[in-house]
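Late entry, written up from scratch paper. The run itself happened at the end of the previous shift, but nothing got recorded in the book at the time, so transcribing now.
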Amino acid sequence: MAKEIAVLTAVDGQTAPMDQGGLLRVYRRQEGGWQEERSMPLLMAAGGGLAGLRKQLAAMVEFLAGCRIVVASTITGVPYYELEKAGCSLWEMQGAPLELLNEVLAGEEEQAVKPAVEAVSLPIPEELGEGRYRISICEVQRASGGITSKQILQPWLQGRIFASLEILCTHVPPWLECEWQSGGAFAGVKEKLPSGEWKVFLQGK
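Output as recorded:
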């Protein structure tokens, strides 16, 4: 496994939110410690719109080269979608890079030795009639067992004609929200429930 991890930092040296930008530092583990290999300013300017944001993220992926582990305080929306599509493993953590890198590397190595497919029963949408469906992915999200919301929902959504899909979840999957905000094959709204869970309502176009 490559021993490189990229961390987005703010001016105070702590991790920064991806949508606000900062200084992107790539660290390499060598001789038992971490050394900063290279860095680049990451300016998430709002003036360029969605196309400008994607151009900046493409430049970031090119800068990362073989590094595919990215840490920031938060990673949501378009940055999450684009970086995940580029094959990056994304971590949301608070703190200074040198306090986090060993923990991130240990988590990556643990994931690498897990079976590719675990013996779990994946939820499938329940048909309610007239093209309406409902599904809960709360248990899968709480379990953190290597199965992602994208593995459950994306194959079902691709190429399917439906009137509506109601999704109960512990948090709204960033990739899913990005899909409907960027004008994909369905429209969506989200609602936080009194229980703290979320209800997402998708409508086919």
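The longest helix spans residues 49-64.
(Scratch paper discarded after transcription.)
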